[in-house]
Amino acid sequence: MRLDRRTFLQQLSSLLAVAGGSTIASGTAQSVIASPLVRTTSSPKPLPQSIRQTLSSEGQRKLALLVGINHYPHQPKLAGCTTDVQLQADLLIHRFGFDPSDVVMLTDQQASREAIETTFTEHLIQQAQPDDQVVFHFSGYGTQVHVPNHRGEDDWVNALLPQDGDSVEGVSNCVLEQTLLLLVRSLATTQCTVILDTAYSSIGEAWQGAWRSRSNPDLSVVQPSQAELAFAQQLLLNRPRKILNEQLSWSALPTCLITMPGAVEGQWQGFSAGLLTSALVQWLWASSEPTTTNLTLAHLHDRLTPITHHTPQIEPATATPLSYTQTPATVWGGEGYIQSRIDAQTVNLKLTGLTGEVWSNYGLRSQFQVLDAQGQPEAVIELRNKTKLQGKAVLISGTSRLAIGQLIQERVRCLPRNLGLAIALDRNLQRIERVDATSVLASIPAVSNVALTGEQPADYLFAKRTVGTPVTVATTQAFNTPIGYGFFSVGGLAIPKTSGTVDEAVIVAINRIVPTLDTLLAIKWWRLLLNEMSSQLPTTVMVESLAQDEPNPVAVAPGSLDNDIIAYHYSHRCADLSFIPQASSAQSIPLGTRVCYHLINPNDFPLYALVLTIDSQGMTSVFVAQDLHLSQPHLQIMPNSTLTLPMSTADLSPGMMLRSPGLEQTFVFLCRQPWQQATQILEQEPLTEGVRNKMVEIKSPWRFTQAMLEDLHRTSLTWEKLLNIPTEHYVLHNHVWAGFRVVYTVV
Length: 747
Known about the structure:
By secondary structure, the protein is α+β, with helices and mostly antiparallel strands. The protein folds into four domains: 5-27 and 62-325, Rossmann fold, CATH 3.40.50.1460; 336-416, Thrombin, subunit H (Beta Barrel), CATH 2.40.10; 421-528; 540-574 and 583-746, no CATH class. Strands 28, 30, 31, 32, 35, 36 and 38 form a seven-stranded mixed β-sheet that branches. The protein has a six-stranded mixed β-sheet with strand order 2-1-3-8-12-15, with helices on both faces. A six-stranded antiparallel β-barrel has the order 16-17-20-19-18-21. The longest helix has 23 residues, at 506-528. The radius of gyration is 27 Å and the shape is globular.
């Protein structure tokens, strides 16, 4: 039986309506379909022999199809999609135990529409059994196309752009998102995860901030090919009778969908990758237990929200673990694995568990511990060379025979003392503007590198701020009006208090912003000190919201809090996993909410804390107790106890009130020894009352941060005598400090 054209379009239109396909506009464009839709009888093009060999394997419980496309025939080239595929493959094989023969990768010319759909059918649908684990990943351009509905009008719908998907005479050989829905619904298993690191709605520009957009820049109106519609029709016909009338959507399927609307790819030292993929892979590499979807979403939110206005999404975000993380090859996390052996004492490493920002600034002589089959350290290796996400390391202690595939964990982080800011210049600036900006920025001590967007990794972007109407595929040009120079995050978020007037000269604008650059450099270093996933110092940070009539908070024990938890962060390598809250992060908090911080020390020795904030106006503050004296260590947390901030006093209102709308970031750093030099800097500064109770502005953020680094460096060298450490590096031992970040938006 086959469906006539009218019946098929009615069913497909109904499917689009419930599947979340974005209907942007309706029109009367002529359909490209000239004959009834029937399944094509032509044989598919042969797949590569390596793929055919993979498809022939049987009896496997974990299957993956990974698609990454950098090179399109007629579109600007992407740079990070094939890297995404390799990152995912390394994660699945070396962290979660997928057999390499069950991980199929289609890249560039291999990833035609027919190859993607055929491989999905043969490798996933035909092989997967009930309760098997399936992963589908796509990195490449996304687009939107016209699909005629039963009313004779056209709906805009989302689609993935395969390597042969460029439009020809108004037709795109794309993969409709609804086709992907039907493919996923055809699986016998319910344990499926779909990662789509792509963007659909075009803004008419290739760059978003200093990152490249993954939305198809071609704004021409196109329709899907007849072959694609025929394939979708056949999937509809092949549905089991019991689900023939079922309305399909991602939310209705027993599938985990991970996306980020407006997806972009970032650039770091030696490699580019999708922002969503790199953050997800790093989190799953380092996590020490099967991670739930809501914990994963919370982590992605904390990582990405401060740098981009695009929000990662996971459906459904529940306490259910991601299916393929339920049976990891190891129950402990790591920063990577031994990729190959050069000789008995020298190995090549793959370090996909480090964040791109840390890796870009990573110093040689950093150390890793090699884990045995029981997850115990059996050797220490030292990094001697690095390129892309790979490194060469030598054995410096331990007698074990280093083996390919062994997991490694970060032990000592070395960071060059002379790290400055890398500034990208927006491509829309005129040549004379770029010349002037480069000349001025190069003379500023806080800046170490200036380059055109896309040429080198960057920390921030210098551009003209614009206002206008975002471009959709239904329009042909943008209406953006420059209103002044300013600094932006690499993802395009404006840095507070850096924007000027429209008639301001470049040199004047940068000189006006110079004091802010010291603050931005301090914040960069705060990010480099985050080690929640690799710290070997047991500790926990919980943030609680308080009811209006709630009494002053008191010290709490893990498990005593329930619905009021805003954030929950802990040292993953050494945590007590008996209590992990169901909700770990709130993306938005009402204005006027009072919050308190619980810093938990489960050790038999004291810890010392610094609590730093960046508010929505870009001001940096530090939490200061009632009295600040070197004779009384700053924010001491006694052994096996909890320090609650603000401290309870008779004249102090409960909690700290959130008074300013916008993005708030709190950094919590805990150390085995007092922050002597940092405290001394605070004593020397004329501290003024901040915007929140007991938070005071840091007048010299970079000077204060340098003192913090010296404290951590000194404590690390006290903890262990490290040999041959270069004097031009800060040496930071993961046993002596833990760094956490809490991110939320006050609305």
